[in-house]
């Protein structure tokens, strides 16, 4: 039998594909599949809060009302009643709203329509690694903005912009992923002004904004821009919202609100990606909107309790020189170990041996760094498991401090 030759499959990949990398979070989660692992690694909502019965009832109601239309192709822009609800909340029109299949798709499509190779993209330091993963194939040049406990250091950014020309600024103002920090109101106003002055588009990623359990709610950058005289047709702020963290991530429903030149191109990009977000899922979400406030209230109450448990456990168990954030909402907090020589990626091996997992912080830096940091999620584990996991993590940290810096052995996944 003749043996067929075959092409070099790896060599056939595009340059863009070769720039793609695996998600560190997804890789770390492979380590946590054993049932005895206490995972602070994922960004998972509390499983017991997912509205299984409500979704079951909503699905029946949708099928009764819409019949086969709920299972049919739909408009790329999204289900009109859902877009109208989003628009009404923001004081805009449905023409400014594009439904996407999860906010991660929104990031990818926005990268596709906004970023040319070599464009400068400003990102927080650290920032959400999923955004870096989405943007990277489009060839941006990242510039990291300095941050502190109040989020982006806008004064430092103003200095940077005297000699840096940027196309896009990506930020998570509310309960930032990974740090849990919130951008102050004063800085929000200044950021809107500064970016408008320099002609920089701003992508405001806000999947956690509804999950505030302490302090006063702050206006979005998008809302501030409208308050300050811009219109929905002229605003340079692009807002990304999601139902994943407040309702059900498995339904994969999110949205982008922006000026028509942006949403019109999003429609075209989405048509090439998946035609439209699943019609049935959008209709289910719309059916659940009357109960959304109650669902958010339940979620916020549980997350407040679990965040407080984690912080108290860290106060009791962590070495005194370990620093960590105390979030006012969201799903994460950020830990910084005292020695820059400790590598939390290598330390993961020891932590998993003690049946606890986290996400190493280095993955959240666009230009490297953060090797002595880690992100912890407080929403997915019970209070008892949180205390147990923090005690195990504290023992791992103490061991690393006693034996010197953790070796740079890579984590095998």
Q: H/E order of the elements? A: HHEHHEHEHEEEHEHEHEEHHHEEHEEEH
Relative helix content: 25-40%
- The top level CATH class name of one domain: Alpha Beta
Mean pLDDT: 93
Main attributes of the structure:
single chain; 413 residues; alpha/beta; Aspartate Aminotransferase, domain 2; seven-stranded mixed β-sheet; four-stranded antiparallel β-sheet; 15 strands; 13% strand; globular; PyrdxlP-dep_Trfase; PLP-dependent aminotransferase family protein; pyridoxal phosphate; PyrdxlP-dep_Trfase_small
Describe the structure.
The protein is an alpha/beta fold. It has 14 helices and 15 strands. Strands 2-10-9-8-7-3-4 form a seven-stranded mixed sheet, with helices on both faces. It has a domain at 73-259: Type I PLP-dependent aspartate aminotransferase-like (Major domain) (Aspartate Aminotransferase, domain 2), CATH 3.40.640.
Question: How does the SSE layout of this entry go?
Answer:
Layout: H1 15-19, H2 24-29, E1 38-39, H3 52-66, H4 80-90, E2 97-100, H5 103-114, E3 120-124, H6 129-135, E4 141-145, E5 147-148, E6 151-152, H7 154-160, E7 168-171, H8 185-197, E8 201-205, H9 221-227, E9 237-242, E10 254-257, H10 260-273, H11 279-288, H12 292-317, E11 323-324, E12 332-336, H13 344-353, E13 356-357, E14 359-360, E15 373-377, H14 383-403
Parallel strand pairs: 1-13, 3-4, 3-7, 7-8, 8-9
Antiparallel strand pairs: 2-10, 5-6, 9-10, 11-12, 12-15, 14-15
Helix pairs in contact: 3-11, 5-6, 5-10, 12-14
């Amino acid at each position: 039998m003749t043996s067929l030759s075959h092409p070099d499959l790896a060599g056939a990949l595009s340059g863009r594909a070769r720039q793609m990398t695996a998600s560190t979070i997804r890789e770390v989660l492979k380590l946590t599949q054993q049932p005895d692992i206490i995972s602070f690694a994922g960004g998972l909502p509390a499983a017991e809060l997912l509205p299984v019965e409500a979704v079951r009832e909503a699905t029946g109601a949708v099928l009764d009302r819409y019949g086969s239309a709920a299972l049919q192709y739909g408009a790329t822009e999204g289900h009109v009643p859902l877009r109208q609800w989003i628009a009404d909340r923001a004081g805009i029109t449905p023409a400014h709203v594009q439904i996407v299949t999860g906010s991660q798709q929104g990031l990818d499509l926005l990268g596709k329509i906004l970023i040319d190779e070599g464009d400068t993209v400003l990102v927080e330091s650290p920032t959400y690694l999923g955004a870096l993963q989405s943007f990277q194939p489009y060839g941006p040049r990242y510039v990291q903005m300095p941050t502190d406990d109040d989020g982006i250091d806008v004064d430092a950014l103003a200095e940077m912009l005297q000699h840096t020309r940027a196309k896009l600024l990506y930020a998570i103002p509310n309960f930032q992923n990974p740090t849990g920090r919130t951008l102050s109101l004063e800085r929000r106003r200044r950021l809107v002004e500064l970016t408008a002055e320099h002609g920089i588009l701003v992508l405001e990623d806000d999947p956690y904004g509804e999950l505030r359990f302490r302090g006063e709610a702050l206006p979005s950058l998008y809302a501030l821009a409208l308050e300050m005289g811009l219109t929905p047709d002229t605003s340079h702020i692009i807002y990304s919202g999601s139902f994943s963290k407040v309702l059900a991530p498995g339904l994969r429903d999110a949205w982008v609100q922006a000026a028509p030149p942006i949403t019109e191109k999003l429609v075209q990009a989405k048509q090439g990606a998946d035609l439209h977000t699943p019609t049935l899922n959008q209709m289910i979400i719309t059916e659940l909107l009357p109960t959304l406030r109650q669902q958010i209230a339940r979620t916020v109450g549980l997350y407040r309790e679990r965040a407080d448990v984690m912080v108290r456990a860290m106060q009791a168990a962590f070495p005194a020189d370990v620093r960590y954030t105390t979030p006012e909402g969201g799903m994460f907090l950020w830990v910084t170990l005292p020695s820059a020589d400790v590598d939390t990626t290598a330390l993961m091996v020891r932590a998993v041996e003690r049946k606890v997992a986290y996400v190493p912080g280095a993955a959240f830096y666009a230009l490297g760094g953060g090797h002595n940091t880690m992100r912890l999620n407080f929403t997915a584990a019970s209070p008892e498991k949180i205390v147990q996991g923090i005690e195990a993590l504290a023992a791992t940290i103490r061991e690393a401090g006693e034996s010197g810096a953790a070796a740079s052995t890579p984590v095998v996944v």
